[in-house]
Design goal:
276 residues; alpha+beta; 5-stranded antiparallel β-sheet; 4-stranded antiparallel β-sheet; disordered C terminus
Length: 276
């Protein structure tokens, strides 16, 4: 894609070709640009026309490491996708999906028609909700014998032992507790995903962010998951989540539940600059 183009077409995401957005004005996009719907058969792209010099590949690459430059653009990108997601199915594209013009966008829609149509079918089943779970070690260590048969047996032995033997067993128990943190955590996390998955169309686990992104006050993140939940199933999903939080909160785990979000984790179209 030439860096000397006067204008660049920015694509936020893909919606059904028959999507009706006449009930309300589309939100502003990047750089307060207007957002339009470029229709092509059964598909349509949400687009803005931006200044070509400002969004030349070299300029984007140079500026993308600047948080002050990137943050308002990320907010605008998400604003458009959230607006569309509130009104129906949308396949989000990555930030800076840039095209040389209308013809390039239409070619992308034609070339990726089958893939994008399949992705729309997938995401129209629900909305995305995110769940992050954090482990608070000091709290979990206090109750971990209740969650581990081996530790429970050791605690029972210590409780019925003579004073001298009890001291040794309690020392052993304290050491064994930390060794059980990982396995008990994995057990709890797997149960959470399995239970919530019963009320979700799909679920996906994402990598845990690097240590620098963790919040000490909340503990250590042990689950970073997303769930695609149909509106008709959301009440049941919410009840299940409430029971999970009541069971584990203040007993070694904290929960951060957010949404609905555009289905970032459940749509995987192949995207790249068109090279025109």
């Amino acid at each position: 894609m030439s860096s000397t183009l006067e204008s660049i077409w920015y694509v936020y995401g893909i919606v059904p070709g028959g999507a009706d957005f006449t009930s309300g004005a589309l939100p502003e996009g990047l750089d307060d640009a207007g957002v339009a719907v470029e229709r092509r058969g059964d598909l349509a792209a949400l687009v803005s026309v931006l200044d070509g010099a400002s969004y030349a590949p070299s300029r984007v690459e140079e500026s993308s490491g600047d948080v002050e430059w990137l943050s308002p653009r990320a907010t605008a990108h998400d604003r458009v996708l959230t607006w569309a997601s509130d009104r129906g199915a949308v396949v989000p594209l990555p930030m800076f999906s840039l095209f040389s013009g209308r013809d390039a966008v239409r070619t992308m829609l034609d070339d990726r028609s089958a893939q994008l149509s399949s992705a729309l079918e997938r995401v129209k089943r629900g909305r995305e909700y995110a769940l992050r779970v954090y482990r608070v070690d000091a709290e979990l260590l206090d109750v971990i014998p209740e969650m581990s048969p081996r530790l429970r047996e050791l605690a029972e032995q210590a409780g019925s032992a003579s004073p001298g033997q009890r001291y040794l067993l309690e020392r052993k128990l304290d050491g064994e507790k930390r060794g059980e943190l990982r396995s008990v955590t994995q057990q709890v996390v797997d149960e959470i995903v399995e239970q919530l998955g019963r009320d979700a169309a799909e679920s996906v686990r994402s990598p845990i962010p690097r240590a620098a992104d963790r919040t000490p006050a909340s503990g250590t993140m042990v689950l970073n998951a997303a769930f695609l939940v149909a509106p008709s199933a959301f009440e049941a999903f919410q009840r299940t989540l409430t029971s999970i939080v009541e069971r584990h909160d203040q007993r070694g785990f904290r929960f951060d539940f957010t949404g609905p979000w555009p289905p970032y984790h459940f749509s995987q179209p192949s995207t790249a600059d068109d090279g025109a």
